[in-house]
Design goal:
InterPro entries: Biotin_lipoyl (IPR000089), Single_hybrid_motif (IPR011053). The chain has strands spanning about 1-10, 10-15, 25, 40-44. The protein is an all-beta fold. The protein has one domain (about 1-44). Strands 1-2 form a two-stranded antiparallel sheet. Strands 3-4 form a two-stranded antiparallel sheet. About 0% of the residues are buried.
């Protein structure tokens, strides 16, 4: 299942779930610039 699409250097990278789980909290917002290793979402 697709969790998010992250754009980097004009390329879109699709983040997909590797296993079942529940998203607890999304810390990033649409259009936000992210730093290396910055948290995007948390899981239960």
């Amino acid at each position: 299942q697709t969790l998010a699409t992250v754009e980097a250097m004009k390329m879109e990278n699709v983040l997909k779930a590797e296993r079942r789980g529940i998203v607890k909290h999304v810390t990033a917002s649409q259009g936000q610039s992210l730093a290396v290793d910055e948290l995007i979402m948390e899981f239960e």
